Amino acid sequence: MKLTELQQQFSQYLLYQTSELVDLKITGPFAPEQLMALYRNNFYISITEYLQGCFLSVEALVGEDFFAQLAKAFIIAQPLRCASIEVYGSDFANFISCCEQAQSVPYLADIARLDWAVDRAKSELLHAEFPFARLAALSSEAQLEIYFELPPNTVLLASNHPVLSIWLGVKQGGLESIDMHSQEIVIICPDRIEGARITALSKAQYQFLAAINNQQNLQSLSKLDNFQQLLSDSITAGFINNFILEGEL
Amino acid sequence: MNLLNSTVNNHRFSTIKECAIGIGLRSPHHLQILTEQPPVGWLEIHSENFFQPQSQQRQLLDKLAEVYPLSFHGIGLSLGSTDPVNKRHLALMKELIDCYQPALISEHLSWSSFNGQYFNDLLPVPYTTESLTVFCDHLNQAQNVLGRQLLVENPTTYLTFADSEMPEWEFMNEIQRRCQSGILLDLNNIYVNSINLGFSAEHYLAQINLEAVQEIHLAGFTRKTLDNGEILIDTHGSEVSEQVWQLFRILRKTCQAPALIEWDTNLPPLEILLAQAARAEQEQIDVLKSQQVSA
Predict the structure, then answer these.
(1) What is the ipTM of this complex?
(2) How many C-beta atoms surround the C-beta of residue B111 within 10 A?
(3) What is the percentage of chain B residues whose pLDDT exceeds 90?
(4) Chain B touched by A30 (CB under 8 Å)
(5) Tens-digit pLDDT profile for residues A189-226
(6) Across the interface, which of B120, B126, B162 has its CB nearest the CB of A80?
(7) Of A116-130, B155-169, B213-227, B248-262, which range is least confident?
């Protein structure tokens, strides 16, 4: 048997695309099906364990068994396409939102988005404070052309559910007092002490920071209501930590 | 020296001493190793965990590289696959290696991808001349791009292919001969395979080219009960077994390569890993003493 055929059949068996093993001519201390089950189980378990580490709150909400089912369905539907597993899982939240089995927990996809954002923020290198001196060195005209930046791996999440309350409730062991019909907007960003920080935002703060994410320059931002206060608050909170010039976009 | 406040001065260790005992660096131990600087001979990282240049992991590695010699152990190159070598993965590996110049770099005799899909596992290679050609072509390509020699680790395999044309040790030796690569000898893998597949671990040690062995792995296994018997699973989740210590004593009589305590699952407190490293030190001291007595 050619190596390509062997690896194709082996792969298909792992992915439940075939149950045929005869051509692989497997030998060993147990039946080929038992030996291949070791590899198949390890394949799903190892990736599921990785996803469990990224989506702690999702698992806490749905339980280990249901999470394993979700993970297995995700692994089959959206295979790992990168040699390093470290980037796998970015589409898990979208998968959950389309997954019929998960519809009974309507906020689950947004909790997954929050979990993922926290996981990514934790790996981010912490950056310097906002460069006030560099900003002051620019002319007034040049300042109007700058673009503010949020720290890398910072995520804005406007949810139709009380996503932060649920996320905190999972950690603290209680969801009873949460108004499940409320809506919450949060920002998740890297943090020097906690690794990641989640902060509730007002609608105005969200719109301001979303405009920055959409690459509106200072001149455009300054037309927003309460611009000065929003800018000052955002820099103080560490939601904005840099700016770039138009030519650096 | 307070590592947390230190600045990087680009000091790097280019070699690991003979018989030095190291431990695998795992994230739950990062802070403790950084602050306490335990006296281990070297650290081994999983390369893929440190690919992102602007990351807290890299910041940590910058600091640890000032204190410990490093070995980079890869799990994602999939050198035994018929898929072409993943150039992006290789480029990320090169960037990491160029940045830190680790003393040793290693990968596995296995495959983990087919047709662009990855399995996050080390899958078994049939020991055929075709597999040998594929593996060596990929290994040569990787060594050329990286500009460094790679060590190839003997795998754990729970099955064999009837199409195999040679035993594993012969396949390993031939890779080394054709590619001028090195060998990373995992004694736990040899023991687990010897029990599961029915061969003599001592015979394996007698047949492998020990002059090419540049690193040794020591790890633990677990026992799994199947319907009609028991199989050993290479979990790296327990202390090194007495049988593997025995193989280590045999190997140490003729091989002075640095050895690593490798522990990946059910990770214990760092102190347990350090105790295992201390045991490895004691085992090799005992071997040396017994050789002096018999001389």
Answers:
(1) 0.92
(2) 29
(3) 89
(4) yes
(5) 998 888 899 999 999 999 999 999 999 999 999 999 99
(6) B120
(7) A116-130
Would you call B181 an interface residue with chain A, using a CB distance cutoff of 8 Å? no
C-alpha to C-alpha distance for B272 and B1, rounded to whole angstroms:
25
User: Rounded distance, CA A155 to CA B236, Å?
Assistant: 36
- Among residues B226, B216, B222, the alpha carbon closest in space to that of B237 is found at B222
Percent of chain A past pLDDT 70, that is, above it, reads 99
Residue A174: band (very low, low, confident or very high) from pLDDT cuts 50, 70, 90 = confident
Contacts of A8 in chain B (CB under 8 A): 114-115
User: Which SS3 state, helix, strand or coil, does residue A98 take?
Assistant: helix
CA distance A8 to chain B (A): 7
Q: What is the pLDDT of residues B2-21, one digit of tens each?
A: 333 333 345 567 899 999 99
Quick check: A16 contacting B, CB < 8 Å? no
Answer whether B160's CB lies under 8 Å from B197's CB: yes
Query: CB–CB of B58 and A83 under 8 A?
Result: no
C-alpha to C-alpha distance for A145 and B143, rounded to whole angstroms = 48
> E-assigned strands of B64-181?
70-73, 104-108, 111-114, 117-123, 151-153, 160-161
| B156 touching A (Cβ < 8 Å) | no
Show the CA angle centred on residue B24, arms to residues B21 and B29, nearest 5°: 115
Name the residue of chain A whose CA is nearest to B116's CA.
A81
